[in-house]
């Protein structure tokens, strides 16, 4: 059984990123262990915390360390990833030399209500994952534009073609991630 951690970059209720994440998770094998890892309660990273980390940092790092692979879904905020997601990456990568991210295979998906589909956020996240030593699945690239037209009011993906595309991508990620066990 593979343990998949899911990080959703949008912390708002009924977020489209959560809907995309749910559609990706639907493509995982039934025996997968899936954990949505909350990033909304992490205080802003501060190097002063390296010596005495807040409990939320300790719990977050512990949960990431337990995962075999990570699924990231990010919105695009001002041509970048959300502050909450960037903070989570920083918290998990510190103290220096104690990163919990290294070697974990990653899947990146981005979404936006506009036609750019979160492309810039997607690539910025990928650059961070290079630094964090996370092998990242290259294809298919998962850019979901006009997501509001593919979703219901709660943010769930309702478009059958999009659901099938995301489930197929997840199956490819399962194969990709298995190479790193």
From TrEMBL:
Can you say what this protein is called?
Answer: NADPH-dependent FMN reductase
Stored Pfam families:
FMN_red
Q: Does the keyword section mention Oxidoreductase? A: yes
Concerning Gene3D superfamilies, the annotation shows:
3.40.50.360
**Keywords, alphabetical:** Oxidoreductase
The organism named in the record is: Leuconostoc aquikimchii
PANTHER family recorded? CHROMATE REDUCTASE, NAD(P)H-DEPENDENT FMN REDUCTASE LOT6
Give the E.C. number(s): 1.-.-.-
MF GO annotations: oxidoreductase activity
**Domain NADPH-dependent FMN reductase-like, chain residue ranges per copy:** 3-146
């Amino acid at each position: 059984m593979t343990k998949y951690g899911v990080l959703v970059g949008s912390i708002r209720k009924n977020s489209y990123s959560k809907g995309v994440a749910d559609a990706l998770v639907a493509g995982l094998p039934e025996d997968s262990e899936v954990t949505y890892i909350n990033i909304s309660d992490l205080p802003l990273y501060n190097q002063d915390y390296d010596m005495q980390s807040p409990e939320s940092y300790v719990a977050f790092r512990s949960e990431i360390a337990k995962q075999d692979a990570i699924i990231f879904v990010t919105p695009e905020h001002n041509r970048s990833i959300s502050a909450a997601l960037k903070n989570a990456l920083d918290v998990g990568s510190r103290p220096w030399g104690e990163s919990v991210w290294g070697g974990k295979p990653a899947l990146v998906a981005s979404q936006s209500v506009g036609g750019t589909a979160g492309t810039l956020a997607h690539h910025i996240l990928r650059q961070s994952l290079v630094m964090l030593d996370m092998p990242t699945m290259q294809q298919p690239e998962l850019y979901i534009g006009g997501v509001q037209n593919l979703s219901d009011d709660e943010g769930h993906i309702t478009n059958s073609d999009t659901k099938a595309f995301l489930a197929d991508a997840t199956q490819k990620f399962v194969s990709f991630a298995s190479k790193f066990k």
